[in-house]
Amino acid sequence: MSRRRFEWKLKDREFPLGERTLIVGVLNVTPDSFSDGGKFLDPDRAFARAVEIEEQGADIIDIGAESTKPGAKRLTEEEELRRLVPVLKRLRGKLSIPISVDTYKASVAERALELGAEIINDPSGLTFDPQLAHNRSPA
Question: Which of 48, 59, 81, 117 is the right S-S partner for 22, CB 3.0 to 4.6 Å?
Answer without folding.
Answer: 59
